[in-house]
Amino acid sequence: MSHDLEPLDPAKGAWDTKEMGRRRFLEVTFWSVTSVVTVGVVGSGGRFLVGNSLEPRTANWVQIGKIAELKVGAVNRVNYAMKATDAWREVEQKGALYAYTADGASYTVLDGSCTHLGCIVQWAASENRFRCPCHAAEFTREGEVMSGPPPKALGRLETKIQDGALFARI
Ligand code: FES
Predict the structure, then answer these.
(1) Are residues 79 and 104 in the same domain?
(2) Total domains in the fold of the chain
(3) Which amino acid residue places its CA nearest to atom 3 of ligand 1?
(4) What domain range includes position 140?
């Protein structure tokens, strides 16, 4: 009596190459998504543990100029560069501020960094507005968004007057 197995039907035994391709695709997709999610969770968890230690810790007062020299109604630009300290190192911080007074008694200082991606906005006096050169955003003199992609108004800084000079806190 013979116990030989029946030969396999070649059609049933063949690898389904389409199915293998789909499985491989699903595997790669699964591991890619898992990696991205893991990096995101670990990254945000790490950020939470570190807290705001990556941000500059010290607020700095920047002198804008003598108030006697600030012309009423004019928008004055002040560029600044300074050392700021974060948790473990000194970094150079650069930017531009815009200061004006409508009455010679109260002062407004705006951070010139666009709230979209941080380009420095330019004051267009003839149009009475700020323009961002990067993506054509426009802001009012008060810093409110008129058009373009910025999500919010220009930053308005705390000010003080000391020894006849205007300072802004950045
Ligand atoms: S950086 Fe100003 S509009 Fe994009």
Answers:
(1) yes
(2) 2
(3) 135
(4) 61-169
DSSP-derived 3-state class of residue 34: helix
Report pLDDT digits (tens) over 123-140.
999 999 999 999 999 999
Q: Return the best residue to mutate from 115, 119, 121, 139 for the ligand 1 pocket (most ligand atoms within 8 A of CB).
A: 119
Residue 119 domain-assigned (yes or no): yes
C-alpha distances (whole Å) from 105 to each of 1, 108, 142 are: 114, 10, 16
The verdict on 106 and 144 lying in the same domain is: yes
At 40-95, the pLDDT tens digits run: 554 444 443 443 334 444 568 888 899 998 889 999 999 988 877 777 788 888 89
Domain-embedded: residue 78 = yes
Give the span between the Cα atoms of 110 and 156, in whole angstroms. Answer: 5
